[in-house]
Amino acid sequence: MRANSALRLASRALALYPGDLLNTTTNQTVKDYLTVCQNAYYIVIDFFEQATNAFAAADYKSVLKYEQQTPRAAASCVTIFQTPPTPPNPLNERNRQMRILISMAVLSAFDLVNGP
């Protein structure tokens, strides 16, 4: 149970970052884009939590199913900053970290289901 709690706390902290930026920016376009990012992060967190519950139940196919849905959700935070007008993306580094985390999770789930 401790691992689940730690994952939930870490995930929530990750999603708070766009919210912190939302509170400090005055540019409405950036605020709108950050709202999209914050929602995307919460979707990723939800999938991670569902995957964690499936893992605890030894339902590895469901783990893979949930993890495979995370890249699309996270990508919306990248693509929104490519929509004109295009302000600089203050989440570039955080998005890079998220892509790494998601890639590791998907590959791990794939290995659980299919073997290394």
Structure description:
- By secondary structure, the chain is mainly α.
- The protein has one domain (2-114): Butyryl-CoA Dehydrogenase, subunit A, domain 3, CATH 1.20.140.
- 81% of the residues lie in helices and 0% in strands.
- The protein has 5 helices and no strands.
- Helix 2 packs antiparallel against helix 3.
- The chain is elongated and about 45 Å long.
- The two termini are 26 Å apart.
- The model has no long low-confidence stretch (mean pLDDT 83).
In short:
This protein has 116 residues and is mainly α.
Cα shape: elongated
How many β-strands, per DSSP? Answer: 0
Which class of secondary structure composition applies to the elements? mainly alpha
Low-confidence stretches: none
Query: What is the helix tally?
Result: 5
CATH class: Mainly Alpha
Family: Belongs to the PMEI family.
GO molecular function, one term: enzyme inhibitor activity
Protein name: Pectinesterase inhibitor domain-containing protein
InterPro entries: Invertase/methylesterase_inhib, PCW_Enzyme_Inhibitor, Pectinesterase_inhib_dom
